[in-house]
Amino acid sequence: MAFIEAKNPEEALKVAAQVAAGAARAARMPAHARAKVLNALAEGVRAAREEWAKVLAEEVAKPLKDGRREADRAVFTLSYAAGEALRWTGQWVPLDAEPAGENRSALIKRVPRGPALFISPFNFPLNLSIHKVAPAIAAGVPFLLKPPPQAPKAGRMLAEALSAAGWPDECGAVVSCPNDAAEALVKDERFATLSFTGSAGVGWKLKTAAGRKHVVLELGGAACVAVCADADLALAAARCAAGGFVFSGQTCISVQRIVVEASAYEEFKQLLLANVAELKVGAPESDADVGPLIDEKAAMRIEEWVKEAVAGGGKLLCGGTRSGRTCAPTVVEDAPAGCRLVVDEVFGPVVTLEKAATAEGVLAKAGTGVWGLQTGIFTKDIDAVLSAWNSLQVGGLCVNEVPTYRSDILPYGGSRMSGIGREGVRWAMEELTEPRALILTHHP
What we know:
By secondary structure, this protein is an alpha/beta fold. The protein has 2 domains: 3-219 and 414-441, Aldehyde Dehydrogenase, Chain A, domain 1 (3-Layer(aba) Sandwich); 224-399, Aldehyde Dehydrogenase, Chain A, domain 2. The protein has helices at 9-21, 23-28, 31-47, 49-60, 64-87, 127-139, 152-165, 179-187, 200-209, 233-245, 262-277, 296-311, 340-343, 359-366, 382-391, 425-431, and strands at 3-5, 91-94, 104-112, 116-119, 143-146, 172-176, 193-197, 214-218, 224-227, 257-261, 315-318, 322-323, 326-327, 330-333, 350-356, 374-378, 396-399, 419-420, 433-441. The chain has a 7-stranded mixed β-sheet with strand order 1-6-5-4-7-8-18, with helices on both faces. Helix 13 (340-343) links the parallel strand 14 and strand 15.
C-alpha cells in the first residue's frame, strides 16, 4: 500500500479516485482472505514492536513502555478483527407477524456503504489508526487514511506493513496532506463514510462539511471519576493517578475531574498525592511515567490554565510547574466551576479534585458539563452503579475503574460534545456498512 505525500487538494483527490475505484475488489474479497491480511498485519506489528516503540518515542514523545503497550494493543485489535471477519453474518427474519407477510421471509446482510475516509490523531498514531483500518479490512471496505502530521514515520511504517500483509494497493492508501487537502477529501462525495478522531472543534466542523456521508466522530472529553465513601480508596487513588497521567494526560479519556464523597475526601486526597509523587518524569527514551507534551505550545497552554484556576480560588496541591515541553504532574483542589481546567478538555497531566456531601451529590457533579465519553465510579453499592448507568449521559461507565480503560471488544464513543457513532471492531464494522434485505416469497 502506498504512502503518499499530497501537497495540495488536487493530489489528494487523485488518490481518492484510485481508492474509490477499488471498492468492488475490496467488497469481493472473501472473508478468509481478509482475515489472512489482518493476521499477517498483526504478526508484522508484533515483530516490529520495539521499532514501533522507538518511532512513537521519537515522533510524539511517548515513553517507550507506553509505545510497547500501544503496539501490543494494535496486535490484539488486528487479531480480534481477523476473527470478526470470519464471524460477520446477517440474519433471517420471518415476516408473518402480519397477514400480508404469510409465506414470506427475509435474509439481511450488511454491505459496505462505500469507500471510507479515516483521519487519526497524534496521541496514538498506530493504535487509533488501527481502530479504523482493522474494521474496514474485516468488512471489505476500501479506505484512505490521513495519519497525524506529527508522526510521518509511523504513517509510512503502517502503509508498508499493510502492503506486506497483502491488502491490495488499489483498496487503500495512507496519505499525508495539509489541512486544505484534508478538507477537500472530507467534501468528496466518493467517500461514503468519514471517521474522525481528534478535537471537538475540528470534528464538528468536518461533520458540517461532510455532506451526505455517514459520519463517526470520536472526540474529546473532560473525563470524571466519582469516588463514593464505601469504595476501596487505595485502589481508587492508585487508578486515578495512573489514569490521569499516563502519556502526560494526552488521551481523550484521561482522568481530569475527581469528585469524592466528603466523608472519604481527606483520606483519598492523601492517597492520591502519595501515588502522584511516585510518578517518574523524564525523557520518552527512559522508563518515565510522564514525558514531554506534543509541543511547547501545548505545555504553555496547560500552564496557563492551571494558573487561571489557582488565581480563581483553586488550591495547587502539587505540580504546576513547566520546563519546556514538560509539565509536572499537577493536582488542583476546588478549581472554580467555570474555569477552563474544569469545563474544557485539558489534554495534559492535570487532575482536579473536589468533594460532594453525599454519594448522590457525587454523581450529580459527575454528570455536569458538556462532555459524554466515559466516566468512572468507585463504589460497592450496586444501586449507586445502576443509578449512574441510568442517568449519566456517557458512552461508557467504568465501575471500580477509571474512564481511561478501553477495550476494542466493546462499543466506544461519546454522547453530547464527545461525538457520534461508535468504534470497537464489530461496532465500527457496522458503522462502515449498511443492511440490505432480500425478501423471499413462497407460493405453496
